[in-house]
Structure prediction request, 310 residues.
Amino acid sequence: MKCKFCSKEAYIKLHYPKTYLCIDHFIEYFERKVQRTIERYKLLRKDEKVLVAISGGKDSAVTAYVLNKLGYNIECLHINLGIGEYSKKSEEFAKRQCDLIGAPLHIVRIKEVLGYGIGEVKTRRPPCSYCGLTKRYIMNKFAYDNNFDAIATGHNLDDEASFLLNNLLHWNTEYLAKGGPLLPGENKFVKKVKPLYELTEREVVAYALAVGLDYIVEECPHARGATTLDMKAILNELEEKRPGTKFTFVRGYLKKRGLFEVEVEKKELRECKICGMPSSGEICAFCRFWGLKEPLTFKVDRDEDNLRGT
Prediction:
């Protein structure tokens, strides 16, 4: 098949809208769609300082690559989760990606900072539960300590659709109220944005290959059997039968999100007495889980270009 816009051989067939594109026109399409997403949802300004959370995987690498190419002021943060060989590989991929992109990379290794890696803590909580808590806290604390205006993550259309389906099935209205491409900053919470919000996982993979971004393909050992994978499988089956299902589902949610917002009471936040970050109780969930007695600080020493962590 030929590209819709030229006589070159098609690199990809887009399922929605149904279009064949060569590699050059696909790259142009992808980057234009990211820019339109940023503009439509007012995610970022060019004068803002953006921290991209980069895992070593395709989504976060593509996010950093595109934002840098579009002229946004980015730096990257990799959180090494201390999961044996998997985390070692992830960190190496993150380093190579940032070398290719030409973006500064900061690394926080939680085993060095907290004493344990994910999966090593003696707790009844599943690893994914406190892993999410830990990553969210460190991303926000790092961004706050270093005066970033926004945190950009690599969540794509498939991620958002599976998140919505899972939470709708369980009627988790509090989580449904917080969905969407933009989570505004408030108090000591730094604004979070999802530039790939309207792009599918398949398109992200195609873009990474097109621009030469290498990424880790192994899944986290703790992710096997995760509910998210089941939700994605269901949505992929629906998408195959009815192209555009994911996009329509997510766009429809954005129009009706207010229905969930009115059901969620805004919790009064105070400062955690350990770290000073926002908390619904005396001690925030992060400090409570990790048993911290002193706050962590991630202030970057710009002269030496490394991290001071305690």
About this structure: The two ends are 57 Å apart (CA to CA). Residues 305-310 have pLDDT under 50 and may be disordered. The chain has one domain: 31-267. Residues 127-145 form the longest helix (19 residues).
